[in-house]
């Protein structure tokens, strides 16, 4: 394995969990998220010699987001699964409750709102960069972000209360 | 804790350790993609250096009376010159390749005729199409290739995909080639190609659905009709099952 390959493997191991999780936050689908992250890493590796000295993680993130945004226009694929995420680690009650709350709260948002929320508050990108990566205006980022947060505020407490009631 | 803080916290604590990604598959597919991109880059390199080498072609039924069915083999055929009649064997992904430096060393493209603005935007960049000069060893009647690129606000062009014939004449009537997004570009590339003849309407078929292409005539030769599909109608990377061209009287060409 060459030096470049070794660096890529190190990069991919470090970045893959975040990429998969970001894709999951944007899609709500574990299989789709893994596919999207894999695609992003394939394209990143294909360009590795050119980007490894720059912002490889940013490059992979942009590929991931472009891929998912492109996917919004395609028919939805459904994957059969035997895994029920909320039951996967049932002994960690807090994490289960948090994941359930997060799933419910993100599920109330449109794909674009989810993407903006993930880029702004998971990747902590400034509004201008979110706008560039989603090919929309900064004004759209501001207004959509504001609308999404309003939905979160209105959805959040009720969902949280339900979580408490379920315990 | 505010709702926003809670959201941030929730997004972070629910992250799971990695492990779902198949790194071997990532590197295998990445090498294949890199090979295809390097081959496309070789087409650009011939513009300046006139080097003999490999070229890229996405061949579609090229005769005007062809039923227009688009086959689904791998779209990128790599053929050592001179090209053979049949589909060329895709490159061995495990083959040793030189370092990828093409993106930094390629000369900027030199469009022949006017650059066509597709109306598709990638941030501030325009998705554009343009013809460029190519050189195919032993094929003197192939001298143009069609490029899909992006034009930055300062006018800089970046080529994403270049397709060209590998035999025959690049001006023979009918469809010549279709370029598909293979995932190697930083921005999605809508499917595109060109037709030689009096086409007024070009329609693709995908999964039984008909999709109308957008057309523009090449400023240097009005018989060359460049077409592309709006990404809202045909997602970049999706392949057509068939394609037809019709003239102003709605006759099939």
UniProtKB/TrEMBL annotation, chain A:
Domain RNA polymerase sigma-70 region residues, every copy: 17-74
Family that this chain belongs to: Belongs to the sigma-70 factor family. ECF subfamily.
Protein name: SigE family RNA polymerase sigma factor
Keywords: DNA-binding, Sigma factor, Transcription, Transcription regulation
Ranges of biased composition (kind: Polar residues): 156-167
Ranges where the RNA polymerase sigma factor 70 region 4 type domain occurs: 100-152
UniProt-recorded Gene Ontology molecular function terms: DNA binding; sigma factor activity
NCBIfam families with a match to the protein in the record: SigE-fam_strep, sigma70-ECF
Region described as Disordered: 147-167
InterPro entries: RNA_pol_sigma-70-like (IPR039425), RNA_pol_sigma-70_dom (IPR014284), RNA_pol_sigma-E_actinobac (IPR014325), RNA_pol_sigma70_r2 (IPR007627), RNA_pol_sigma70_r4_t2 (IPR013249), RNA_pol_sigma_r2 (IPR013325), RNA_pol_sigma_r3/r4-like (IPR013324), WH-like_DNA-bd_sf (IPR036388)
Residue runs in coiled coils: none
SUPFAM superfamilies recorded: Sigma2 domain of RNA polymerase sigma factors, Sigma3 and sigma4 domains of RNA polymerase sigma factors
Lineage of the organism: Bacteria, Bacillati, Actinomycetota, Actinomycetes, Micromonosporales
GO BP field: DNA-templated transcription initiation
Keyword presence, DNA-binding: yes
From TrEMBL, chain B:
Residue ranges, annotated region (Disordered): 66-112
Composition skew (Pro residues), residue ranges: 72-93
Low complexity compositional bias, start-end: 94-105
Keywords in alphabetical order: Membrane, Transmembrane, Transmembrane helix
Transmembrane segments: 39-63
Name of the protein this chain belongs to: Uncharacterized protein
Annotated source species: Micromonospora acroterricola
Source taxonomy: Bacteria, Bacillati, Actinomycetota, Actinomycetes, Micromonosporales
């Amino acid at each position: 394995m060459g030096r470049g390959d070794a660096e890529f493997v190190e990069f991919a191991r470090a970045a893959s969990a975040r990429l998969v999780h970001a894709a999951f936050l944007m899609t709500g689908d574990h299989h789709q998220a893994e596919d999207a992250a894999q695609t992003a890493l394939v394209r990143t590796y294909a360009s590795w010699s050119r980007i490894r000295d720059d912002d490889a993680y940013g490059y992979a993130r942009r590929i991931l987001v472009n891929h998912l945004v492109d996917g919004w226009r395609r028919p939805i694929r459904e994957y059969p699964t035997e895994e029920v995420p909320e039951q996967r680690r049932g002994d960690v009650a807090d994490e289960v409750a948090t994941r359930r709350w997060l799933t419910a709260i993100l599920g109330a948002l449109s794909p674009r709102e989810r993407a903006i929320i993930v880029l702004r508050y998971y990747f902590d990108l400034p509004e201008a960069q979110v706008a560039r990566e989603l090919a929309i205006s900064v004004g759209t980022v501001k207004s959509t972000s504001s609308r999404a947060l309003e939905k979160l505020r209105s959805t959040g407490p009720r969902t949280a209360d339900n979580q408490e009631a379920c315990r | 804790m505010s709702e926003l803080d809670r959201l941030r916290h929730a997004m972070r604590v629910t992250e799971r350790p990695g492990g779902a990604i198949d790194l071997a598959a990532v590197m295998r597919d990445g090498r294949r993609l890199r090979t295809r991109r390097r081959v496309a880059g070789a087409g650009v390199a011939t513009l300046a250096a006139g080097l003999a080498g490999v070229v890229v072609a996405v061949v579609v039924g090229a005769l005007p009376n062809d039923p227009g069915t688009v086959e689904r083999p791998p779209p990128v055929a790599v053929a050592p010159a001179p090209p053979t009649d049949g589909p060329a064997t895709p490159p061995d992904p495990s083959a040793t390749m030189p370092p990828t430096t093409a993106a930094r060393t390629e000369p900027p493209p030199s469009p022949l005729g006017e650059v066509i603005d597709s109306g598709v935007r990638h941030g501030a960049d325009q998705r554009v199409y343009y013809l460029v000069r190519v050189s195919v060893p032993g094929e003197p009647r192939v001298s143009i290739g069609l490029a899909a690129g992006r034009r930055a606000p300062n006018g800089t062009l970046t080529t994403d995909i270049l397709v060209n014939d590998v035999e025959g004449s690049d001006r023979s009537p009918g469809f010549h080639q279709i370029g598909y997004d293979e995932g190697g570009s930083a921005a999605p590339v809508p499917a595109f190609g060109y037709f030689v003849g009096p086409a007024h309407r070009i329609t693709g078929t995908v999964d039984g659905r008909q999709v109308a292409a957008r057309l523009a005539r090449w400023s240097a030769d009005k018989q060359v009709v460049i077409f592309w599909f709006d990404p809202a109608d045909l997602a970049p990377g999706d392949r057509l099952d068939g394609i037809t061209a019709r003239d102003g009287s709605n006759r099939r060409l």
